[in-house]
Amino acid sequence: MPRRTDIESVLVIGSGPIVIGQACEFDYSGTQACRVLREEGFRVVLVNSNPATIMTDPEFADATYVEPITPEYVEKVIEKERPNALLATLGGQTALNAAIALHDNGVLEKYGVELIGASVDAIQRGENRQSFKQIVEKLGAEVARSRICHTLDDVFGAAAELGYPLVVRPSFTMGGVGSGMAYDEADLRRIAGAGLQASPTTEVLIEESILGWKEYELEVMRDKADNVVIICSIENVDPMGVHTGDSVTVAPAMTLTDREYQVMRDLAIGIIREVGVDTGGCNIQFAVNPADGRLIVIEMNPRVSRSSALASKATGFPIAKIAAKVAIGYTLDEIPNDITRQTPASFEPTLDYVVVKVPRFAFEKFPAADATLTTHMKSVGEAMAIGRNYTEALQKALRSLEKPEARFSWASRPATELEPLLEAIKTPHDGRLRTIMDAIRAGATPEQVFDATKIDPWFVDQLYLIHEIALQTAAAPRLTPEVLRLAKRHGFSDLQLAEIRGLTEDVVRGVRQALGIRPVYKTVDTCAAEFKAETPYHYSSYDEETEVAPRTEPAVLILGSGPNRIGQGIEFDYSCVHASMALREAGYCTVMVNCNPETVSTDYDTSDRLYFEPLTCEDVLEIVYAEMQAGPVAGVIVQLGGQTPLGLAQRLADAGVPIVGTSPEAIHLAEERGAFGKVLADAALPAPKHGTAMSADEAREVAEEIGFPVLVRPSYVLGGRGMEIVYSEAELTAALGRLSGGTGSWEHPVLIDRFLDDAVEIDVDGLFDGDELFLGGVMEHIEEAGVHSGDSSCALPPITLGNADIEKIRQSTEAIARGVGVRGLLNVQYALAGDVLYVLEANPRASRTVPFVSKATATPLAKAAARVMLGATIASLRDEGMLPAEGDGGTLPTSTPIAVKEAVMPFNRFRTVDGRSVDTVLGPEMRSTGEVMGIDDTFGTAFAKSQAGASQPLPGAGKVFVSVANRDKRHMIFPVKRLADLGFEIYATDGTADVLRRNGVEAITVRKNSQGPGPNGEPTIVQMVHDGELDLIVNTPIGITQGGSPRLDGYEIRSAAVARNIPCITTVQGLAAAVQGIEAQRAGDIGVRSLQDWVPRIRGV
Amino acid sequence: MSQTAHNPALLVLEDGRAFTGTSYGATGETFGEAVFTTGMTGYQETLTDPSYHRQIVTQTAPHIGNTGVNDEDDESQRIWVAGYVVRDPARVPSNWRATRSLDDQLKGQGIVGIAGIDTRALTRHLRERGAMRAGISTEILDPAALLEKVLQQPPMVGADLASEVTTFEPYVIPAEGEKRFTVVALDLGIKSMTPKRMAERGIEVHVLPATATLEEVLAVNPDGIFMSNGPGDPETTEHPTDLLKALLQRGKPYFGICFGNQVFGRALGLGTFKLKYGHRGINQPVLDRATGKVEITAQNHGFAVDAPIGETVETEYGTAEVSHVSLNDNVVEGLKLTGQDGRVLAFSVQYHPEAAAGPHDSAYLFDRFVELMEGRA
User: Fold this and answer.
1) What mean pLDDT do residues A176-185 have?
2) N or C: which end of chain A has fewer CB within 10 A?
């Protein structure tokens, strides 16, 4: 059966901004889907508010709408584009929820749009717990005993019946939002209360606990001829009780007999049929009681999920691509397996290797958050590794996390006390495997480890195996080939071996290489070598035979950005993928190195070769060596993947690896304060007064000289990690204590800068070829300086800067590019204060804003950068048409639309230990997980779109609460007055209300939280927020300090706002922007327009 | 137990390629045809499958033995593989049903194995060069010396092995529930799940030795005839082929699996041939040519039937055609014989609907056998 001919155009909905629980895996799946649909000749219409995605590149769809994924906006797109079909199963829960809303409100029917992939009925059967339970029971299987509840009374009734502990799961939320484990009535009241709130249907499931059971997932695919195949089995090392997104997981399942596996397989097939997912993929989760094998079906996702991305990378079977093909009518046997080319997709991949995924958390960004792992997902990213056995894969995965404390270490003496370690491993936490290893080192028995963790004894034994090899390596008289080879086969890095032997990593590497012990590269081929693989998707292993093919065309290695984390995510993957595309086209053999399974870069289709490997110096050096054996290597690109590859640059160069683009010396010049200061001085560019310090005393001296407030931060970090603004010496001392972890000293110098109050912050992305500067884009931050640029919203073109300012920015940027010696991309941050343009910092690499700038200016910056790094000039790229023939991002015509980038914060994912929200104040340390873009003719509409896209839509009317710090009172008067004029009711606390009244704005005084309820029961502001009485909250904090420490009323108000999802503005500039957005919304219908349609306006044609 | 404490072992292929690893299971030496199987689960079933008789089986899945060995999953009374090649054997078994470790089981049954070698390199070699004779030794560690012994071994082509794996005495597996049919199952290397699948459907299964005569078969007065899987070259199966011809002449409904498919092919006058490296795994896609549906099947065969796909072949028993084909390489995976009225008279498949180990997609074939005996097919 060939593809359907009765539909011509398909609307694809993406997943919007990156949030915890829904990350760039949906860019990977959506990009695959768009590619397939276009190849098949459909007109593809795409809606996705996330500009950092590959899928929103104009070349992946016929009409790309970077618009909010809300029913209102998607309806506008449907009205304009009139697609025949809607594919919503590849955009995560966001797309699925939007599709259901458009079905429920009749829009799909009105415009005759057919939902393909999964019907609304199937989605509801799969996601509604009651109907799902009936389906499972009909198939003769069990679900956990449970009750559906709609009120807290129901909940307590269920608890009486089922007994504690209980699991609470809200319906229709993603990533387990609002779910949790309740051990007593207080827990239950808190978790179920929040869960009812989080569920769009005010529905929670109260379920018997199957804590400690083994947990599995199957990825299932079905076509319209009812062929069903299992793509992958995944086993969680962490047993039930930890969200699968936060678990260490393994593929294929390691501890199942065939009989047990086949029972699961039969059920999975039965379930996808009964639920009625006609075409496409879904995943089904199971729990198994280790004592007697009792099997329970946990849940299904009737769509492509995070696990699907993992399964695709783990097996080489591209689930999203195949799901798109079956959605448009193909059957599985008609689709060739890309990797073997000779065999069809209607088969079940079989693995001759082991895949381990480990989560990456960001608790360091939210010190107040409860770091216990629960059924509510908290990780922000993940790394995957492939090895020929579990130990190899596990140790590779742990070092892929780039957290030194994540990997196993035998450097220190074993702990003398076992009990605290055994106690610690009872609670799932980030790094628990390391804690278990420490317990093993301290003498724990396998039984003790199992009793404390319920981790399957086979996995526990593998940890003992690793430990025994470490001990053997330590005890060996010499590092013989046998000793090294054995350790390497179980995944030990040169660094770990160096620690064990008391040597340096370089010495271990030297010995190892001299002995000829190097990894070989095997191929992920879907079929365990039964058929020849045509796709060079490789992983390393210390085995015998390598499969890297020789080649003649010059190779360029592109180092990716590793696991997603706050500050380094999809934006860097975007640049890497673009480099690969551009260099492939230019005739290079592109070789991608990355370990993040969620990304487009690790799609085996993206580059000529893919190495799914950790981004450590050792692993990269070995790949370079293998590729040098295979043919000529033109160079390695380190400037596109963020800080991870940049941090490797010098060591790679020292080892003789050719780095293309900006040299490691130049990178150092920009990173190192003193050297950079000289560059600025030579070019006569002002910078805020600054200094560096290696000790606390030195830091105090520097701060004294510069004058408070100062910005304190460590060097060589991304995302403002550890950055704080301090207003006094006492605050400085506290901040330094946090930075040094109490030790009082640092490996790299601490940077101290004068903090410019009230400055306009400007972000610039430029491209420099050694001679000419191409100013990519100039972004004006909406929040004042002091909010991390990644968390700040910004506008492009800049909304208040004049031509003279831009000219100054151009000259400064060029001077810095020249002075540093940039070849490729450069990001500079400026602060404009009192007509002086201060240089805050310069980064000679791709920045987080490259994709946003590329989309807002219709210029493929990262592609051009890759070409420049390999020797092309800006002039030649203009001739080629890759860059505009004339002008650049600094000379955009007045017809250019305004693009607003807004950050999306993860505050709703975290709770403090006592169950309250963490503080939401923005500061110099980046904490956002994702971003959205709003684009329109004027700033107001673009800003309104950006807020809607970030799930914080501005209200059109209603009640506004205003409470601002003294220093903001003057600036808030005009915007608040405007809101009052627009008909908003203004509420304020004493001080703010007085100021407003004196300025002619009627404001109703509300009681502070600290005042408590009034004598006649007047509620406090916090109660009002909790009761959902307010539509907008404006609350600027008193001083900006590190997030996390509760600050009285402000904190209570803001965290209540998070809990109720009420828009909460924490800067006065944000308020002004919001007022413009509200005015734009009220002015009338906001339209939608595709990126392709904006191009003539950007080009000024 | 440390990984280095094991004794060395050597694997040598008849073309001289050698792999050095560590001893696994029993020590000593063993010879057989080197093949690989790609199933990620079901090593216990694989080891006890008589079709692997005289074969040195390589598991492409690296971790073997994780779930130990239990009392329920054996497919016959003993381990049949001649030798066992794995990469990373489990040190401790972990499963609620496990009663002992695989290592102990192999030792107990004297199965010589090798661990720690690059099984993927071996698999790729066999894929490119074809299945071939091989030897594993923990005693001869010189490749040239072991190669000499390998070359003295008989090849698989021309090997008549059914007599070595078949039951000596007939036995009966009673029907579960109400008995509806009696079937004679000729044991050419039958797996225990096969009569069980029939018994579940009300069939009383009389398992007869491979040497059973026509008279002995007819004496059971069967409603249908079944021939099982088994090892060896189908060209050597004169007796079962002649027996099946005689039974087809008598109009007995027939169902064959694996070797039983090849015997059926030969009875219909079709040829058989040795595949380069065979089909061994539990993920093999097969197309049912009648319905267009795909089944994921368990397979274990080194030989295949040579028959024209998409054409019919007239035989003295009726019209024969290929009913199933492999989607991977178009190898014949099933045969069907129909009478003049279009009714199915007999059928067989090259793969394993009894599926132990493997997926249950093809279990419907046992229902089809019931329908055949009911005269409904």
Assistant:
1) 82
2) C
- Number of Cβ within a 10 Å radius of residue A1097: 17
User: Mind listing the domains of chain B with CATH numbers?
Assistant: 3-151 (3.50.30.20), 162-374 (3.40.50.880)
- Residue A715 one-letter amino acid: S
B258 is catalytic: yes
Counting every residue, how long is chain A? 1101
Q: Spell out the domain ranges in chain A.
A: 9-118, 145-209, 357-514, 520-660, 661-686+757-896, 689-719+729-755, 938-1083
Confidence category of residue B2, pLDDT binned at 50, 70, 90:
very low
User: What whole-number distance in Å separates Cα of residue A198 and Cα of residue A277?
Assistant: 26
Tokens representing residue A1068 in the block: 């006065």
Is 0.90 surpassed by the pTM of this model?
A: yes
Distance, C-alpha B264 to centroid of its chain: 16
CB < 8 Å to B120, chain A: 352, 388, 522, 528-529, 543, 545
Given a contact cutoff of 8 angstroms between Cβ atoms, the answer to whether B268 and B254 are in contact is no
CATH class of A357-514: mainly alpha
What fold, for A938-1083? Rossmann fold (3.40.50)
Closest Cβ–Cβ partner in B2, B70, B88 for A389:
B88
Distance CA A844, CA A842 (A): 6
Taking CB atoms and an 8 Å limit, are A255 and B39 in contact across chains? no
**Residue A508 to residue A494: CA distance in whole angstroms:** 6
Q: Is the peptide bond before B231 cis (omega within 30 degrees of 0)?
A: no
Statement: A145-209 belongs to CATH 3.30.1490.20: yes
Query: Nearest by CB to A258, which of B88, B292, B357?
Result: B357
CB under 8 Å to A1016, separation ≥6 — which residues? none
The CATH number given to A661-686+757-896 is 3.30.470.20
Number of alpha carbons in the 13 Å side-chain half-sphere of residue B91 = 20
pLDDT, average across residues A954-983: 91
Closest CA to A391 of B39, B103, B116: B116
Q: Which two tokens stand for residue A1049?
A: 């009323």
Whole-angstrom distance, CA of residue A20 vs CA of residue B126: 46
Give the ipTM of the model, two decimals please.
0.96
Q: Could you say which of B93, B284, B327 has the minimum Cβ distance to residue A333? A: B327
- Answer for the pair A967, A974: CB distance below 8 angstroms, yes or no: no
What is the DSSP secondary structure assignment for residue A1009, as one 8-state letter? G
Contact residues on chain A for B329, CB-CB shorter than 8 A: 342-343
Q: CATH assignment of A689-719+729-755?
A: 3.30.1490.20
Task: Name the architecture of domain A9-118.
Answer: 3-Layer(aba) Sandwich (3.40)
CATH tag for A520-660 (out of 3.40.50.20, 3.20.20.140, 1.25.40.10, 3.30.70.100): 3.40.50.20
Q: Please name the helix (run of DSSP H) or strand (run of DSSP E) that holds residue A99, with its range, or none.
A: helix A92-104
- Read off the pLDDT band of A716 (50, 70, 90): low
Calpha distance A447→A973 (Å, rounded): 67
Q: Coil, helix or strand for B299?
A: strand
Question: Cβ contacts of residue A44 below 8 Å, gap of 6+?
Answer: A9, A10, A12, A34, A37, A38, A60, A61, A62, A63
Count CA within 13 A, CB hemisphere, residue A986.
27
Distance, C-alpha A316 to centroid of its chain: 22
Q: B61 vs A528: CB contact, 8 Å cut-off?
A: yes
Give the number of other CB atoms < 10 A from CB of residue A515.
13
**Mean pLDDT, range A848-877, rounded to an integer:** 97
Instruction: Provide the pairing of β-strand B181-187 with B203-209.
Output: parallel
3-class SS of residue B194: helix
Q: What is the DSSP letter of A704?
A: H
- Over pLDDT 70: what percentage of chain B? 98
CB A117 within 8 A of CB A280: yes
